[in-house]
Design goal:
By secondary structure, this protein is α+β, with helices and mostly antiparallel strands. Helices cover about 35% and strands about 15% of the residues.
Amino acid sequence: RKAGHIYAMKVLKPEAIRDDIDRKRFHRECSALQKIRSDHVVPYHDHGAFDHDGVETYYLVMGFVEGSDLQRRLRGRTFPLPEAEIRTVLGQVLRGLADIHEKRIIHRDLKPANIFVTKDGAVKIVDFGLVKMIDYTTLTMTGAAVGTPLYMSPEEMQGKEIDHRSDLYSFGVLLYHLLTGTYPFTAENPMQLMHRVTQEPPHRPTEHKPDISN
């Protein structure tokens, strides 16, 4: 808390920073947040490292978001959600993504757990730990996929080069889920899911909820 403001601090456990790649990934997350100015992205304030019992410990200071993530808000809800509510929430998510992509940044892990809704209904995109900055060399291994499988684009599942459209795919899955209560593709394991995402057409949302408006 400082001058009437409340901040949130993300402190990485020492085992989370094991080598130079981990340090670069952390600094990339901080650098991305520094670049973004958006009403719909958690605000950056500071980052650095301190000595804790002889161990270098990294931290990131962000604006405190009072509310809960969308994943928690969806628990126990009856689907589909009211379309007016979906438009209110996802309209703000789209504006946040536009601000992120304007800076040539890809979030790479858009999902309900990374979307916070404040008590007054404001939406903030959080958790840039997997962020990719288009002008930077990728820090993930060639052919490796990171992120949450149900929301992951076909290109990222296959370890291919991605751009902002990968986030838009994740946004589409999120919209589909809020409208229907299920996902475009489901599977028993990630390999089966990857096959379906890359080889099969999705079920139309109206197959689950025929009364969805156009």
